[in-house]
Amino acid sequence: MTLRIEPDNITYIFDNEPRNKEIIKRMYDVIEKDYNLVVWPDDMRHKDINDMILSGMSKAEVQTIISNNTFAQLEALTKLSYFKKC
Predict the structure, then answer these.
(1) In a 3-state reduction of DSSP, which class is residue 28?
(2) C-alpha distances in angstroms, 63 versus 10, 21, 58, 66, 72?
(3) Which residues contact 19 (CB under 8 A, 6 or more apart)?
(4) Residue 15: left if φ>0, alpha if ψ -120 to 50, beta else—which one?
């Protein structure tokens, strides 16, 4: 039996590397498949969630940042166009 999870119930979170062409390509692929995507804000200094926790951020703070920066479809494309640096 195969369990099918709807795309709107899945959120992809990639590293905060706006200059990494491979990550940007994967982000576009995720949007194309109608999944949710976290597009990190410009003021995010950490590379990933692990760095956020190691710097002293609480789980609640990390979750808030993720929730506030999760996008899909056209909104995700728009945010990604501003995010990428390559």
Answers:
(1) helix
(2) 15, 26, 9, 5, 17
(3) 85, 86
(4) beta
* Three-class DSSP category at 62: helix
Mean pLDDT, 10 residues at a time, the chain of 86 residues: 89 98 98 97 97 98 98 98 95
Tokens (6 digits) for 68: 């506030």
Give the CA-trace dihedral at 47, 71, 68, 8, to 10 degrees.
Answer: -110
Q: How far apart are CA 46 and CA 50, in angstroms?
A: 9
pTM summary value: 0.92
